[in-house]
Amino acid sequence: MKIARIFFISLMLMHYSTCMYAQNKQASEDSHAVQLVIDKLFDGMREGDSAKVASVFGEEVKMYTSFIDKDGTKKIRKGTLKPFLKAIGTPHDEIWDEKIWDTKITIEGGIAQVWTDYAFYVGTEFSHCGVDAFHLIKNPENQWKIVHLMDTRRKEDCQVKSIGQ
């Protein structure tokens, strides 16, 4: 009886560890896929490629920016994807380079959340910093798409790291 109990417990532990390995592997693959979406967004911005940038977004996108205006008043500006894409695709002399670090990705089922610090440069000149917050969904084609993007913007108190993209 004791041997049967040990055998049963061993089988249960093997099953549990196999399930945990499969879940961890899927989570790691999803996390990597989500990071690739974020990287593609910023690569497209640097390249001025609005089609590349558009490819990472879902059909319905909500965009918000939080900032403090010149009078010191906190503001929230609602944006839309179309003007954002137009700005990226309109030729400009300097590269728009958004460097990110301390990126945190959380995934549950078919939704993901990304929170990352950033510093934005026009060419080599620092413009502003803040936090980007993304929500993504996994669509029926098994692709991660950004459906919600919020960011904060400030020019002061920026703890810009030299790492990033």
Automatic annotation (TrEMBL):
InterPro entries registered for this protein in UniProt = FrzH/put_lumazine-bd, NTF2-like_dom_sf
Q: Name one Pfam family in it.
A: Lumazine_bd_2
Keyword list, A-Z = Signal
Which positions carry the signal peptide feature in this UniProt record?
1-22
Q: Which Gene3D superfamilies match?
A: 3.10.450.50
Q: Which top-level group of life is the source organism from?
A: Bacteria
Protein name per UniProt: Nuclear transport factor 2 family protein
* Organism of derivation: Lutimonas vermicola
